[in-house]
User: What shape does this take?
Amino acid sequence: MRAYTSYEPLTEYVLRCADNTLVLGHRISEWCGHGPILEQDIALTNMALDLLGQSRMYLKYAAELLGHEETEDSVAFLRDAMQFRNSLLVEQPNGDFAHTIVRSLIFDSFHYFFSEQLIRSKDQQLADIAAKSLKEITYHRKFSSEWSIRLGDGTEESNRRMQTAIDDLWRYKGELLTPDEIDNEMKEKGIGVDLNLIAPSVDNYLSQVLSRANLQLPQDEFMQKGGKQGLHSEHLGYILAELQFMQRAYPGLNW
Amino acid sequence: MTLTTDKEIKHPEIWEILEQVKDPEIPVISVVDLGIIRAVDKENGKVIVTITPTYSGCPAMSVIRLEITTALLDAGFKNVEVVTVLHPAWTTKWMSEKGKKALREYGIAPPLDDQAGEIELFGEMPAIQCPHCGSMNTKMTNKFGSTPCKSLHQCNDCLEPFDYFKCH
Assistant: This one.
């Protein structure tokens, strides 16, 4: 893998999709064997697997676009943190179960409306991957929404933990829905999703779920951004240290 | 390449071999009955089998690719390629009646066509028939199961737990 500092716009765009799903899939997989009850442990690992599968489709496409004998593995295992294009939200730590659920609720709400639009992309590969993923994303969004409602509308403690998680993670929502130059260029070309178009649907969906869950929408409008451009929180480095360990310690190792 | 869901088409001898390749996780249903074979073509002596993945992350897919290749090589075809296409996305509607029957006999409730309860928040699933005793008095215990394609259920009459192959 070369030491890329920037990519072609389409490659940037595909990497954002690939890295969002790869990093969130990895985060959720950290619950394996630690779920609060067996059923939810299985549910979380199932979703981690779906996300990893979706990521592989995007990574393969990114590798094709990069050329130079890149593969889905080299793209996943041999880029450093600054070359990752995932949003800050998905790299945030699991925290308690409430933080994991809220992180997924925000991402799944975005991912659902994003993929629903991406199906109409003029780029056939992206359209196909989005169509393939959408049914899985529908299950994920149902899971995170139902748990948000169950816990928010649960006991005093579960409500407090959920509200804390929302207050902690809300600032990472903005980046998902705020277009930058790459988003605009891809939208103009009919390849990418119009984020301004899906933002009201995502916000509306989230406020409906939070209202059913007796949870308050945060009033603070400050939104943290940077992940899409490769400026990450310190958490991503630790994720990569684990995710990439094998290929870094034993370069080229195969099963 | 012709995408198709039925198989009274070209190269019946190859379809016959594919009938023998089973899903590694559910060894009673063939890849043909599962509905993942999209096309079988021959080009200059090369057999090209086009398949579509079930779930994005399903680890059985790489085994299935390998088993299809092996079965065709064993049958004497020298040059075999398995191509994966994403579009159109696989759906349980492509599963054959024969496949559904085999699932039920194996102890897995086959997918119903009604997906509404699986999408609506807190939606009620339609009654799933217990594959062991035939009772309709069953409950879901987990939307996610031992593989991405299944959910977990229990029969209220015979009390046996069972898997349901989710609609997709």
In short: The interface with chain A takes residues 53, 55-59, 85-89, 118-122, 141-146, 148, 152, 168 of chain B (CB under 8 Å). Chain B has two domains: 12-93, 107-165. The first helix of chain B runs from residue 12 to 18. Chain B has five helices and seven strands.
